[in-house]
Each structure stands twice: as C-alpha cells, then as structure tokens.
Amino acid sequence: MQPDISVQNLSKTYEDGFQALKNIDLDIQKGEIFALLGPNGAGKTTLISIICGLVNPSSGSVKAAGHDILRDFRAARSAIGLVPQELSTDSFEKVWNTVSFSRGLFGKAPNPAHIEKILRELSLWDKRNSRVMSLSGGMKRRVMIAKALSHEPDILFLDEPTAGVDVELRRDMWEMVRKLRESGVTIILTTHYIEEAEEMADRIGVIRNGELILVEEKTRLMSKLGRKELRLHLQHPLDTLPPELVDQPIELSEDGYELIYTFDSQQEQAGVALLLRTLGELGVEYRDLQTRESSLEEIFVGLVHHD
Amino acid sequence: MNLYGIRAIYKFEMARMWRTLMQSVASPVISTSLYFVVFGSAIGSRMGDIDGISYGAYIIPGLIMLTLLMQSISNASFGIYMPRFSGTIYEVLSAPVSYVEVVLGYVGAAATKSVILGLIILATARLFVDYSVLHPFWMLAFLVLTAITFSLFGFIIGIWADGFEKLQIVPLMIVTPLVFLGGTFYSIDMLPEVWQTITLFNPVVYLISGFRWAFYGVSDIHIGISVAMILVFLTLCMVLISWIFRTGYRLKP
Fold it and tell me: What is the pTM of this model?
C-alpha cells in the first residue's frame, strides 16, 4: 500500500546555518497514529512545518496523500489539517466564523452541518457566537482543532496538542483522536508527554538533533528496549548483599528490606528463577515480590541521552 | 482556482472593516471634511481659480487621492501584518491557496475598502463645494487602479515590516510628503522651474494630475503618461510580490 505520508531524504538548513533536519526518511501509513518524540529543538516542528507548507525544504521530497507537497501543493495541502503548537487565533472573530473561514480557505463549499458537528464534538457549540479572545486557553486549543478539522482532512497533524492543557481536555482529545482514526484519518502527533504516545500511538519515531534515530511499533519498541525490574520485599532486612549475588544486577535498598533485580525483558526468564532459587538456598525469606516493565519515558530518556 | 479560499480571505478582511468602522471610515471622512472646510471654503473663497476651476473644486481630486493612498497602504499592510504578528498566518500558508489567490483576497479587500471610502469622500465633498465629473469612467478607472496599486504596495510593506513602527513609517514619512508635494493643493505650473522638474520624480504627481483630468479635463501632465506611470508602478509591485512568494521572504523560513 502506498504510504499516506512519504518523506524522502529530507534536509533543512535555516538561513543562520542551523541544520534542523538531516536526511530524514519516513513513511507513515494510512490510518495510523504516529507519535514523534524528541527533546526541544530536535526538529519535530520543522519536520511538520515542511510537510504542511510553512517552511521550505532545503533538499529531499515529501508526498502527502500521494501528492508532492511542492509540485502538487493544492492536492497535498487539501488533505492535511494542522494544529500548531502555538495558540494563534483571530481574537476578534467569533468561533463559528473563524471555523467557517478555515473551511473556505481550504477550498471547501460551506457546510454548516459539518461545522456544527465539529463544534458539538469539541464542546464548543455553546460558545459558537463568542469571540475567540473571550475563551480560556483550553477552549482556544479546541477552536484550533475545530479549524483544522473544518475541511475534513485525511491527515491530521497535532503539534504538542496537549501542552498546557488540563486533564479533562487531554482525555477529550485522546478520545477524539481515537474516533478520528476509526474514521480513517491518519494522525501524526508530536508530544512531550510520553504517556500520551504510550497511550495512543501505533508507531513511534524518535528524533534527536535533526536525525530520526528510531522508528518502531510502540509495542515492539517497549519490548525491545524495555527493561524489567523485579522487587523482592524481604521478611528480615539484610546488612549487605550476600556474596553469591554480588556479580548479578542486583541492588539492595538502603533500609535493607528490598532487593531490586533488573533484567532485559527479552532475556530468558531463567535469571529470575535462578535468583529465587539462590535466595532460597541462602535462607533469605521474602514476603512479597513484584515485577515492573519500564515505561516509554524511561526508554525515551535512555535513547535521547545516549551518545 | 480556489475561489472559496479567495472569498474566505476577502470576507474576513471586509469583516474587519465593519468591526472598525469608526477607524476605517469615519476618521478619514472627518479629516477630509476638515480639509474642505479649511482649504475649500475658508481659504479657498479668497483664492482665485486655477485653470478656470474654483479652488475648492480644484483640490477635490488631490484630497481623494490622499485618502486613497493612505488608506490603501494602511489597510493592506495591516491586513497581512496582523496575521504575521499574531501567528495566524500559519493557516494561510498551509492552505491550498496559491499566492495569486492570497493576494487577490487581501489586496482585493483593501482596494475595495479604499474605493468605497473614495466614493464616500467624493459624496461628502458635495456638501462643501460644487463640482462636476467630466469623464466618470476614467475617474472610476483611476480610483480603482490607484486603490489596487497602492494596496499591493501596502501588502509589500506589511510583509517587509517587522514591527508596528515600520508599518507606520512609510505612509507617514514618505507618502504624506509625496502627496502634499504632488499637486494636491496647487498646479505644478505655479512652482519655480527647478521645482517643476524635481516634482516630475514624484510618482504621486501623475496620479493626481490624471485624476484631476478625469474630473475637469485639465491636467499638468498628459493623461497618457499618467496612466502609463500608474501601470508601471502596478507592474513593479506585482513583480516584487511574486518575488516575495517565490523566495518565501519573511513568510517562510
């Protein structure tokens, strides 16, 4: 199947010489939710901005919905909706008008029923006649999403959609993203909140210093790079680690009541069994044990800070 | 052609005018009325005719041009500067509209406003002085062409400006002197010879002269030259705008 977004060998060097993107290759399939992770200044927004037409690429090519974003910009851009990071709104406009404006701008005939549907879904219907400037920050964010959806795009870019947004709106937004995906919309989001990517994304791309260092399915990424941790709560505290365990990846907590054993999730489970057997032989008794898989956040931090 | 897109921008910009009716219509009408009262009625009644036209009537074309130029520039420059300033320009840049369509929307709206304003001032002038329009078609043509040309010029300023100061500086520091020295209040024949020659480098002279010809059939400069000059300036602005969009100057990094 032809990818919905195809980025080939894309580079961007700004006028001041800063190289924001280095030879990015990326295919995003139709209907998937793709999360782009990376620290500040890594190039996430530049990548999105080039695909959406806000920044000129230095070299390479991008296709959206099968159309070259430069040669065939009308077809490509018609398919795309963008919710940028900054809250940029027309303060003096009324909600209904500003959303209708966006639809017109994208070349679609007026469709009040569709605008109404979007406003209702985003809980903006009651505010349709309010001026944008009278809305709260969260409401303004909803307005920007409504604008991006006004022309029924097939591809939706959400640049840091939940930055500075309250919990309720974040939940609503996740819900909305899932619904959109069900209707076949491809979604690309950048985020700082790893839990967001963990919660929603099908695939994850990590960008660092303008390079796409990894693209992987979320589940595979987590199992591949994830680490597991086994914590044993001891019946009686230990002063020191028994010598039999010293050369193993085991730590003793400060109060001596906990043994923490970390291992790769890919690794054979034999390590755990061996550990437990050794403890039994040593007569170390434990009253509880728990295992924990590392979160995407930990994986991410590990990746980004690894030089 | 993305007609809905052009319409959206045009409507948006026109709505801005209605929202700021006092500023965009009332204030130029009031200030022009003051000119008519002071120069047309008060001082004008003590002045002789110029080229056989009463002084009050003589200054009408120049005063309309003054407002037309100032308003075209400020409307169009503000229209494109504001979205750049507030960041909402992202939407226009990411939309399937070509630069010609963007310009049609923004400049079309700015020019429409100026033409409406010019006609309002023309009607207001009736309250103070008697005048006739000899060539109504050419009068309208000049009005529209000038409005378009200077709205394009304003659009360029709105893209070039990186602060509110720059936005104001061109209309205030350049256009006002050019209009005042461009024969609004006098015929250039009345100047010493050296100044007559210098005046010919002022593009506004051609506009006012041509516009006055449309009213009264008299002009300092041949009407053909006036039309040619305005078309030259129009072309220059269009070339500059196409360069702006081709290179993404101040719009796309």
Answer: 0.86
